[in-house]
Amino acid sequence: MSRIVYVNGDYVPEEDAKISVFDRGFLFADAVYEVTSVLDGKLVDFPGHAKRLWRSLSELEMASPVDEDTLLAIHRELVARNDLTEGLVYLQVSRGAADRDFAYPKEAKPSLVLFTQAKSVVDNPAAKTGIKVISIEDQRWGRRDIKTVQLLYPSMGKMMAKAAGADDAWMVEDGAVTEGTSNNAYIVKGNKIITRQLGTEILAGITRAAVLRIAAEAQMQVEERAFTIEEAQGADEAFVTSATTFVQPVVEIDGAAVGGGAPGPIAVRLREIYLEEGRKAAL
Ligand code: PDD
Q1: Distance from the CA of 179 to the center of ligand 1, in angstroms?
Q2: Domain boundaries for CATH 3.20.10.10 within the chain
Q3: What gap in Å lies between CA 58 and CA 205, rounded to an integer?
Q4: 4-118 maps to which CATH number?
Q5: Distance, CA of 272 to CA of 266 (rounded, Å)
Q6: Residues 110-119: what's their mean pLDDT?
Q7: How far apart are the CA of 168 and the centre of ligand 1, in A?
Q8: pTM value?
Q9: How far is the C-alpha of 187 from the C-alpha of 83, rounded, in Å?
Q10: Per residue in 38-48, pLDDT tens?
């Protein structure tokens, strides 16, 4: 059975879900996106994703095709029509179709596409074993705070990791870790969680915000600052967060075992609390 996909107001079978070849998302990567996880058929942290979407759109002077209530209704309708209990909803807004021109076209109407992907996100084996990462130079553009679909370098990074026998890559700029290819990066030293401060260099993860709040509530110390690969290799624990991985332990960095090569207690605990609270607050 094919999925039902949302395209500009219509719910259609995926074979019929089509966007113009003149769409600026296709021609210029002139599009932004969000990925929201689904647990028990409900959306985890939808308001956070919606808020970041409005910000991405406004940074690019792109009009929003729908308001927040409508967006939530579309997400829910798509989850229901696809009978999705666990996985994710992918959403993309592009500036729309227009003759190819670098300047933003005035007449283009933004296009909105959403689809679901069923995925076993909770019982993910990597959450139990932890993942191996390599470090690569961060060669992305300078506005990583905007969640655009320019994902070729992160794709290349995942391929570099694969070729090196690892699972993912942490990107490094001016000697400091920025983030993972599709997640935020953390280290733990004693009772302290260290993660890079927000700025244009990284994406403000919605999971990051929740995890830092949970950590503070659990009396853990949080330090938002840059760290190096060497510091991470010598840390007690390391982990990453994202909407699809939640909290995922990192057990090896550039071949060096972190925390004895097994998931650490803080990452495991944060994952448990995040899942519990995420489920409770899901819409
Ligand atoms: N990626 N940093 C980058 C570069 C990301 O692509 C993502 C998410 C994150 C974590 O953000 P959040 O916690 O809001 O998911 C950080 C999504 C999941 C993706 O591209 O599939």
Answers
A1: 10
A2: 125-281
A3: 18
A4: 3.30.470.10
A5: 10
A6: 97
A7: 13
A8: 0.97
A9: 37
A10: 999 999 999 99
Residue 61 confidence (pLDDT): 96
Average per-residue pLDDT for the chain: 97
Pocket test for ligand 1, best of 44, 184, 195, 208 (most atoms within 8 A of CB): 184
Taking phi over 0 as left and psi of -120 to 50 as alpha, with beta for the rest, 190 belongs to: left
Beta-bridged to residue 87, according to DSSP, are: 38, 118
* Six token digits for residue 161: 């990791």
- Topology of the domain comprising 125-281: D-amino Acid Aminotransferase; Chain A, domain 2 (3.20.10)
Pocket test residue of 90, 138, 203 for ligand 1, highest count of atoms within 8 A of CB: 203
Q: Which of 42, 132, 147, 158 is catalytic?
A: 147
Could you tell me where in the chain the CATH 3.30.470.10 domains are found? 4-118
Check whether 116 has a pLDDT greater than 70.
yes
Kindly report, residue by residue over 90-108, the tens digit of the pLDDT: 999 999 999 999 999 998 9
